[in-house]
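question for whoever is on the cluster today: can someone run the full assembly for these? two chains, 651 residues total. i dont have access anymore since they changed the login thing
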Amino acid sequence: MMLRYISKRILMLVPVLVGVTFLVFSLMYITPSDPAQMMLGANASPAAYAQMRNDMGLDKPFLLQYFHFLFGYKHAIFGYKGLVFGDLGRSYITNRYVFELILSSFPNTALLATGALLMAIMIGVPIGILSATMPYSFIDMFFTIIALLGASMPTFWVAMVLIYFFANKLGIFPAMSDPRDFNSLILPMVTLSLNSMAILMRMTRSSMLEVMEQDYIRTARVKGLDESVVITKHALRNALIPIITIAGLQFGALLSGAVLTEKIFAYPGIGSIMVDAIYVKDTPQILGSICFIAIIFTLVNLLVDIMYGLIDPRVKETRPKAKNLKKKELSNALAQQIRK
Amino acid sequence: MRLPNRSENNAIRALKRTSHNFYQFWRRFSRNKLATISLIFVLVIALIAIFADLFYSYDFVTANSLENSFLKPGESGIVYFQDKEINHKFILGADNYGRDILGRIIHGGRVSMLIGFVAVAFALTSGGILGAIAGYKGGWIDTLIMRLTDILLSIPMIMLSIAIVAALGNSFINLLVAISISMAPRYVRIVRASIITIKDYEYIEAARCIGASDMRIVFQHILINITAPIIVQSTLNIGAAILNTSFLSFLGLGILPPKPEWGNMLSEAREFIQYAPHTLFAPGIAILLTVLAYNLMGDGLRDALDPKLKR
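^ ran it for u. tokens below:
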């Protein structure tokens, strides 16, 4: 049953991924930049230009080019094996293999995102539990406001403010970040985790509150169990299920949210590679990095869905509407707060 | 005594009903203090944005006056503007080119508010129509639209807008297109889901029985009932659109300087964090407060429009 569900989900992934690559490829196709021109410079003769377009396969029809992009293009210099085989040839600018660069920088991004996610969970979940145990108290109210601020702040601005205070004023952490230096990773991780932290905080709170109203919690209390046992053993276990889902989905969001954080902290991750490639109009590099991020994002979300089914036997084949939920959830909880 | 005829009577009743509904809504909404303050804040920002030229002229906020670079908030400087010497007080200080930061924030607000509203309106209409078709018609057209939506949703929203702007090039219109397209799939989902739940209700069947056309059923009978979630989502999305605009401009993919925009102001301030922190704080706080106001307003609207959620 579970296996069938998983294989069905994986099969459903194929058309989506084809669509994603097609979309990204079409977007790059209509870009006004001209790679042949870029290779030759402005003073190339028309004949050389035509030859270059032919060599690069740019004079072929659109669909054929897309086919090349997926399954490879044969040419002595400009040939590549195609996206399906993890090869998109060399970057026009650095002349390095596109996927070599992506694969060497992805672990850095993953490190940053994992660190941020852990930070968000370690801070957000306990605060959420605390808020739920004393709803509508001063502490609850305080963290509600913090969460709301965290969700409304532009990440890149937070990053700069942190740099100003902690790097320039106090000099505790460096302004530039390097994956090999743990100290320099703290500021980008904090920046990146803020948003997810806010979401997890609210999610935990409302999930806990919902569970606390269940009959079996009342039973546990009536039984004379200690309140801390009721919360940790009875309530938290059930409340954790949606929290794990949200945390998983946040990982995908963090991977893409890392773009700006990486850019500001000059961190060598996949996001800054993509943005730099966009600045210099390095088409293969842009295509490669966007497709790569989209594929990872899709896979992570699929994994979370499957895990959700494994963790909670009550859920089968119904996809949690976690994406809609998180915002709704957040604002709902906040609204209740504010009304109080 | 003349009895009002039937249609007049209906019109009056409809008017009364509308005003009563609005009164009910307003009573619930205004109970939420933060949401009310946010609404006022958003209205004030919108008015300031509309009448930005009354406060500072556009030419003034884009003109360099290098001798006033990095003036601190509240300091005055002499600006040579249009062949005149003006003794100008820089309320929030001046940026690296000696331009008035407050003036640039006000004019930048114009861009943000405009993009926020128009992009969400565009996403709402395009996504809403597609969602309505998918939900109401069902069948292959539903499958097609939903697969397309899945594809758009499987690229993170930020990435998608970056890719679109990178492909189309830098301009106001392209920025708008990018942000609307990356938002539209959400509306497709919301509208489709609401329509699917509503379309099997008996009153829809009744409407069909008396011969109402599909268009009429969708617009008159279904859409009326799903306005609440859409309004709430749109309010929240305007905040997200403003964030995204500033984000893209910050990366140099949206509105480029010297045109004032909150994101590109921050991008310029970035190089001078050490010397002039005031250039960093003002635009950031502008973004923060605006987005916060939209989020709070969205929450308030949700409570006021959807009594089912009330305890």
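summary bc i know u wont read the tokens: The two ends of chain A are 46 Å apart (CA to CA). Chain A has 13 helices and no strands.
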